[in-house]
Amino acid sequence: MNHDTICALATPNGVGALGIIRVSGNEALGIVNRCFEGKNITEVASHTVHYGFIKDGDEQIDEVMVAVFRAPKTFTTENSVEISFHGSPHIARKILEVLMKNGARMAKAGEFTMRAFMNGRIDLSQAEAIADVIASENEASRKVALNQLKGGISNEISVLREDLLNFTSLIELELDFAEEDVEFADRTAMNMLLNRLEEKLNALMESFQYGNAIKNGVEVAIIGKPNAGKSTLLNALLKEERAIVSDIAGTTRDTIEEVLHINGTAFRFIDTAGIRETTDAIEAIGVQRAKEKIATAKILLYLYDEWDATPEEVIGFVKEFWREDLKVILLHNKIDLSESNENEFDQVLSKALIPEFTTTIIPISAKVQTGIETLKKELSSYVENLKTDESTVITNQRHFEALQKSLRSVRNVKTALTQSFHTELLAYELRYALEHLGEISGEFTNDEVLGNIFSKFCIGK
């Protein structure tokens, strides 16, 4: 099927000023030429644009501009054509029908990018970076995705992998001379390489938490007792009346999720039902969902006010939901009702929670929006603190898992070296380390993995 000529709409569905249809394959020029009224594009130079009409027999469908790209200097490395037409969905369908009538077939999801990968134009990590560039919703995720598209992660790994491959070759050679009991590979130099590789893999893996935050956003759960001001806080952060605010306890029955970008990072705020014991079946479901959201959140905003809580209650909540990977921010709400800036309530909390729990206490008034900017700065600093010195940031779960397996194999090789394992076992562990490193760039992969990756792409890419 890779020899077929494929076509697809490359622009979003719907009405627009212009639309673009892509065609790629050995017969791309001939197929388009058979339905193009204008120059003979099988004879024109590469990377040129030509005016004319797409026609179905004698019927002109639309006035178009046709861009011609000859192999191998194209995205897929195959002959490619891009047809720019007036952005009508009906015209798009008509042009695609004519192209298929003349020998093309509709492309599958991600098939253009898959061909670029299969033909050696890009590696697998770069192919995935293309999808990340398209999906980027903020400046940070765009920069990281663009760095990976330029081969960031592949370049980081390839040099060390090449050195490891050289040692593996020497170890394999030793197996051929097993009876002579000779060593071709310098064990000391190999151990130094393994140490460098282990350090690099650890650093890349540590960058995943930051990468995941800027790619997928940071999940922030807003919790507290009923009427603590959770919905008012969400509205204050979003600067709109997104959640219903009422003096009636238990107004919020389900979770409400909204995204707010702070300094280029997406924070997914989740307003939850007030946590309390209740006999109301629907409210109980809301409380359960709130607890489920807390379990997956990276940041917990716990609202309380000194008129409806005690320090012991707040401490109890923190202890109940505490995790080492969870940042807890205590929000002392309704300070507009307080007559004093010095709050004994928070002093008691600070003494009780530190150093047992690392928390931050911020006095706010969600109603009059006091302390909201301080809260935003605290949220932003959470992401800043995740940054590492690595220029390449891991954002892909598949890459992270491949790095984990690579690190495990590298450590097994180190163990084999220090304990003087048989050369055959050493060669076995080295091959596994190379294979897992190669999974990132796609040098070692399988059809199931490829199918899963490219099925998530849009049609036309």
Structural summary, described in words:
- α12 (344-353) links the parallel β12 and β13.
- The chain starts with 5 loop residues before the first strand and ends in a 7-residue tail after the last helix.
- With 461 residues, the chain is α/β, with parallel strands linked by helices.
- It has 16 helices and 13 strands.
- α4 runs antiparallel to α5 (139-149).
Give me some keywords for this one.
flat, 461 residues, seven-stranded mixed beta sheet, alpha/beta, six-stranded mixed beta sheet
Précis, in short:
The protein is an alpha/beta fold and 461 residues long. It has helices at 28-34, 89-101, 111-118, 124-135, 139-149, 152-176, 187-206, 208-216, 230-238, 281-296, 311-321, 344-353, 372-386, 397-418, 423-441, 447-454, and strands spanning 6-9, 18-24, 36-37, 48-56, 59-69, 80-86, 105-106, 218-224, 256-262, 265-271, 299-304, 327-332, 359-363. The protein has a seven-stranded mixed sheet with strand order 3-4-5-6-2-1-7. It has a six-stranded mixed sheet with strand order 9-10-8-11-12-13, with helices on both faces.
